[in-house]
Design goal:
Layout (H helix, E strand, L loop, with lengths): L1 E6 L18 H6 L11 E5 L22 E6 L4 E9 L11 E2 L3 E3 L2 E8 L9 E8 L4 H5 L3 E10 L4 E6 L3 E2 L6 E8 H4 L12 E10 L6
Length: 217
C-alpha cells in the first residue's frame, strides 16, 4: 500500500520541475513503523503519459492519451529480500570461457542468476565483471514496473569480509541484468596474498530486495 498524490503539470525550458506535493507530514513519517522500516524509506515517481509541444506552441502529434500524470508514492512494509551464495571451485579453469553464470535461484517468486565475465568484459578488460540477471522468461515481472536494490559481493576468504557493490533503486525493465563491468581489478582478484581467490575457489553472493511499484496500492 502507498500514500500517494496524483497531479499533472506543464513543463517548459524555464521550468523543468513539478510543483511540490505533500505526501505525508514529516512528523507522521518519523513516527511511522510502516513507511519507515529499519531507517529505510522508499520514494518513487511514475510518469504515466506525456504530451509534447514544440517551442512555437504548435501541437505535436503523439500516440495514446495526451496527458502527463505523475504518481508520487511512499511504500509501506512488504519488502521482499533474498540472498544467494555461489561457491565456484574452478575459477582458474575458466581460461577459455568468456562468460559464465550461476545456477538459477529464486527470490520473491522470480528466477535470477549471477553472471560473470571472469576475464573482464570488452568494455573493461582489466576487471572482473559481474551482473545480476532476471530470467528472460519472466515478462510479467518486467511489466510490473517494480524496483529492486541489488548488492553483489565477493568474499575475502582470509578475513571473512566481503567486497561489495550496491545499486540504488533500479526498475525491472530488462532481462539483460544490472552489471558492474569494473567490479574488481583482476590484479587484486588473482593476488594470492589476498583472499578473494584461494587456489581455484571464489565465493560470490547476491543480495536482492524487491520493492513494490505504484500499481500495488
Amino acid at each position: 500500500m502507498y500514500c500517494g498524490s496524483k497531479a499533472s503539470y506543464n513543463f517548459d525550458d524555464k521550468n523543468m520541475y513539478s510543483n511540490k506535493e505533500c505526501l505525508i507530514s514529516l512528523q507522521e513519517l518519523l513516527k511511522s513503523s510502516a513507511f519507515l522500516v529499519d531507517d529505510s524509506c522508499v520514494f518513487g515517481v511514475d510518469i504515466l503519459k506525456i504530451d509534447v509541444s514544440s517551442p512555437e506552441k504548435k501541437s505535436v502529434v503523439v500516440q495514446k492519451k495526451a496527458t502527463t500524470v505523475e504518481n508520487l508514492f511512499v511504500q509501506k512494509k512488504g519488502f521482499i529480500k533474498g540472498t544467494y551464495t555461489w561457491t565456484m571451485n574452478n575459477f582458474l579453469e575458466l581460461e577459455s570461457q568468456q562468460f559464465v553464470r550461476s545456477p538459477t535461484f529464486e527470490v520473491g517468486g522470480h528466477r535470477w542468476h549471477i553472471g560473470m565475465y571472469p576475464h573482464g568484459d570488452k568494455r573493461s578488460t582489466d576487471y572482473l565483471s559481474m551482473a545480476l540477471c532476471l530470467d528472460s522468461s519472466d515478462e510479467l515481472f518486467i511489466e510490473s514496473r517494480k524496483v529492486v536494490q541489488i548488492t553483489l559481493s565477493i568474499l575475502d576468504q582470509k578475513s571473512g569480509k566481503y567486497f561489495t557493490r550496491t545499486t540504488g533503486l533500479v526498475p525491472c525493465i530488462c532481462t539483460e541484468g544490472w552489471a558492474w563491468y569494473n567490479f574488481l581489478p583482476l590484479k587484486k582478484l588473482k593476488d594470492m596474498s589476498r583472499g578473494y581467490l584461494i587456489e581455484s575457489k571464489c565465493v560470490l553472493k547476491a543480495d536482492l530486495t524487491i520493492f513494490g511499484s505504484s500499481n500495488d496500492g
